[in-house]
Structure formats: C-alpha cells, structure tokens
Design brief:
Layout: H1 18-39, H2 45-52, H3 56-84, H4 86-106, H5 110-124, H6 127-138, H7 144-161, H8 164-173, H9 175-196, H10 218-226, H11 229-261, H12 265-293, H13 297-316, H14 322-336, H15 340-348, H16 355-383, E1 389-390, E2 393-394, H17 398-420
Antiparallel strand pairs: 1-2
C-alpha cells in the first residue's frame, strides 16, 4: 500500500534577486555542456566509423559509454549531493567532462575513445541532480517544476549546439578539433562554479533528516526512495519519454534522415534539432502550467501520448512532406518535454533530506535508456544490414531503420501504461514521511 505523503518543512522562501538565478544558472550550465557532449556523436557517425573502423553496433556502444557512466553513477551522485552538497560535485563534474573530451579528441583507437566517453558521462552525471538540489535550496516549492523545466531547456540548448552548429564545425575543422575546444570550456566552467556557487542561501539551515541528522545514511537514503512504488512508476514513465530524445535525436536520427531523405549532414542535424527545440519549449511551459494548476499526472500522460503519436507517424507514414515531418519532430519534443514533471512528482513523494536521491533515482532510469537503446538500435541495424558500404562506413536501408527504431515506440507505450498507475501529487506536498 502506498504511504501518504506527510508535510515536512519546506525551504525558506527567498526574496527575488539575481543570486538564486546565477547559482542555478551555473549548475544548469554543466547540464547544458553535458547535453552537448551527449549528442555530439550523432553528427560524427561517418568520420567516427571511418577513423575508428567500426560498425553500427560498436559505434552505438561507444556513444553509450557516456550513459553507462552517467546512469550508473546517478544513485551515488544523489547520495553524495545530499551529503556533501552540489558545489563540489558540480566543479569536479565539469573538470571530468573536460578531461574526457580531450582524451576522446586524441583517441586513435577504441580503448582511449571508450575511456574518454566514460569520463564525459561521469562528469556530466553530476549536472542535473546537483542543479535540482540547488533549485530545492534556492527556490520555493511552487516554483520547482518551472525551474526544472528551465534546466531542461538549457540542456536542450546544449543539445541543439551539438547538432547543426557542431555538424558545421565538424565539416570545416574536423571532429577532433571540435572536441578539443569543448575540453577547454569544461575547465572554464569548473572555475566559475567553484568561485560563485554555494550550496544554499546563508540564512537557510541544512535540511534535517531522520534522527535529526542533516542527511540520512547512504543506505537509508536509498531505501527511503526505493521502497516507494510511486518512485518506480515515475522513473519508468520518465525513462520512456526520454528514450526517443537520447537514441533518435541524440544519435541515429541524423543518419536516418541522410539515408532515407537524402539530406546533407547539417540539414539532417537541423531537422533532428527540432525535437530538442520542442523539449526546450515544452519543459518550462508545461512545468509552469503544472505548478500553476497544481496538477502533475495529467500533464505527464498528455505529453507522453502526444510524443507517442508523433513518433509513430514519423517512422511509419512514408513520404511525409518535409514541412510535416518538421512539425512532427517539434510536436514530439514539446510533448515529451513534459518529462520534467516527473522530477516534481519525485520531490513531492519523498522527504526533503533525500531529495537528491529521489532525483537521481529517476534520472538513473531516464539516462539509462541511452545506455540501452543506443547500442540496441545499432545492433538491430546491423541485423538488417545488407552489406552496403560508402567510403568504408556501413549504410542501412530505410526498412532496417524502421524496424530498429520501432523499439522506441514500444517503450513509449509501456511508459504510458506506467503513467496511468501514478497517483497525483501537488506542489505543496513537499516531502513524504521518513518513518
């Protein structure tokens, strides 16, 4: 039986000013930077296949090394954020991203490339959860979904930067130079975070956990979140809504458009960026509406359903005009941007002292879809490969793409069913009982 939430003391309401937004903005900048790195391989598929002599399954696995580290670290990250605060972890995360980007740029073979992507994913793994923890401390609870949506928007802007603009840079300067430049940005971001960000406003005490401690023990924090069925349903619904972004827009969509529509790389990247733009619009818009109306489940289900319909149309209605296809990409992103509401539901179903763990629990499932579906789709493409090669890179047929990408539609349907089982939460239910 699901335990009813009990009200805990919320963070002190803060007066309006620039410092909360600057603090949040620097944390969100790491999420933005991490998202740029997350999708970057999608515009490098051909040169990576050629330079590293790999096929679709191996390339999908190489890209997914980011998610292996990112998703695998989410629970520990949530526990560390609750115990040691976001400032230290955000600084270290930016440095790890920069180092990983440099190693990937220098890689002549798979081992160093794998390690570079692993470090990038590990560093980026601190971004979203630590930024939400900052939002928990610096903003009142009725603004949380809105600030979460704005965080998602900045992440999508990073993803957009990792599509058409990066594709143009790769065409002119090469993928190695582009990633070396990204490494330098990581170092600068780490310095800015360390100098400016603080874990909470000076007048705000640390949140109190069980038995009066400022944070629960590591095991107790995880158990407090994992024992609640609501958290599992939220995580599954959110994961299904994110899989198309990470695996289609984030890796295979550019190659699919180039092969099936004959688009050039920058044009294809611009098209898939519409899904990211949709997320950037939908996240803050739906988060704000959810806060104002005090409803979560309704927006989560509506967004999931819209994303499912749009993706099914994109993949299974042949010869759609490019204008219609573009509209479907945008609408898909707007609908699936409602995923941000899942983090508000996680906040409202759990105690404030384990907020970081709750965010990490959901984010682990969300980013784990990239670790699963990027290589899975690559493997399915290899199964349907007819042996065609262009300049040493494998070329897959439209039918092979359709079959492989349909796995995302199936998973979206599963997530929609999970969403139906959620109970409604409300912005002022600031935590669950710690008993």
């Amino acid at each position: 039986m699901t335990e009813a939430p009990a009200t805990l003391a919320a963070p002190r309401r803060l007066s309006a000013g620039w410092l909360p937004w600057l603090t949040w903005g620097l944390g969100a900048a790491l999420f933005c930077y991490g998202f740029f790195q997350r999708v970057a391989p999608s515009v490098m598929i051909d040169p990576l296949m050629r330079d590293l002599a790999v096929g679709g399954a191996v390339l999908g696995n190489l890209s997914a090394f980011y998610f292996y580290a990112y998703a695998g670290l989410q629970i520990p990250v949530g526990l560390m954020v609750d115990r040691w605060g976001p400032r230290r972890l955000l600084t270290g995360g930016a440095l790890l991203c920069g180092l990983g980007s440099l190693l990937f740029a220098l890689a002549e073979g798979l081992p160093l490339a794998y390690f570079g992507r692993l470090l990038i994913g590990a560093g980026a793994g601190f971004g979203f959860v630590a930024t939400l923890k900052l939002a928990t401390a610096w903003f009142p609870p009725e603004r949380f979904a809105q600030v979460s949506g704005l965080t998602l928007m900045l992440g999508m802007l990073g993803g957009i930067g990792g599509q058409a603009p990066l594709a143009a840079l790769v065409e002119t300067a090469g993928w190695r130079s582009a990633l070396a430049g990204a490494a330098g940005f990581g170092v600068l971001l780490a310095a800015a975070i360390w100098l400016v960000v603080r874990d909470r406003p000076p007048e705000t005490p640390a949140p109190v956990g069980p038995a009066g401690s400022t944070a629960p023990s590591l095991l107790a924090g995880f158990w407090a979140v994992a024992r609640r069925p609501q958290n599992w349903l939220v995580a599954l619904a959110a994961a299904a809504m994110t899989a198309p972004l990470l695996s289609f827009a984030g890796l295979w969509g550019v190659a699919w458009l180039m092969q099936t529509r004959g688009l050039e790389r920058p044009e294809a990247a611009a098209m898939t960026s519409l899904m990211l733009i949709g997320w950037a619009l939908g996240g803050p818009l739906i988060g704000t509406l959810s806060d104002r109306l005090g409803r979560r489940k309704l927006f989560l289900l509506a967004g999931s359903g819209l994303g499912l319909v749009c993706l099914a149309a994109v993949l299974h209605l042949p010869d759609l005009p490019l204008a219609v296809l573009s509209s479907l990409f945008l609408a898909n992103g707007i609908g699936l941007g409602a995923m941000v509401v899942a983090f508000a539901m996680a906040r409202e179903a759990n105690a404030m002292a384990v907020a970081g763990v709750a965010y990490a629990f959901v984010n682990c499932a969300v980013t784990g879809t990239g670790a699963v579906f990027q290589p899975l789709i690559g493997w399915l493409l290899d199964l349907g490969w007819d042996g065609a090669l262009v300049e040493g890179a494998r070329v897959y047929s439209a039918e092979a793409y359709r079959s492989a990408l349909t796995s995302l539609i199936v998973f979206l349907a599963v997530g929609l069913v999970a969403g139906l089982g959620l109970r409604e939460t409300h912005p002022k239910a600031t935590g669950a009982s710690t008993k």
